[in-house]
Amino acid sequence: MSLCQKAFSAVSAFAGLCLGGGLWYLTGGVIGFLFVKLYPKIKEPSVEILSTFIVAYLSYVAADFCNASGVLSVVTTGMIIGWYAPTLFRPDIRMSTEAVWEMVVFLLNGIVFLMIGPLGAGCAEGSLELSRFNVGRNMPDWFAL
Questions:
Q1: 59-65: long-range pairs with CB below 8 Å, 24+
Q2: Phi and psi of 128, rounded to 5°?
Q3: Residue 12 lies in a domain
Q4: Is there a domain that residue 105 lies in?
Q5: For residue range 96-128, what is the model confidence (pLDDT) as tens digits?
């Protein structure tokens, strides 16, 4: 297979995943609007914050189940919820949710940084062939979350 054929194959696979027959925005939109309609029924602050995590995960899994882009589905869900957020969330819950999400993003960035570190060491040694580089050889067992 020539380089041009490989590039065309990669671009067409990416376009097919992004377009996905429109399923990514359909799943993200449906889940987003369901959340907007069901959220006012939640009265417990901790459940309100937890629901923001659950809706993102549910949106990803639903789109992935339909062979559409889970990431674009989550973005669509987030845009719909973000549009209604000023009227949907109470100010105290909005501030608490923002603090929780900032902490989660900070922790995930730290984990990604720690996982990429061994790859950088392998590249610095000249072993750019990733199939020979065992990423997990120096990582502790708790990284296998």
A1: 59/27, 59/28, 59/31, 59/32, 62/27, 62/31, 63/20, 63/23, 63/24, 63/27, 63/28
A2: -75, -15
A3: no
A4: yes
A5: 999 999 999 999 999 998 888 777 666 666 555
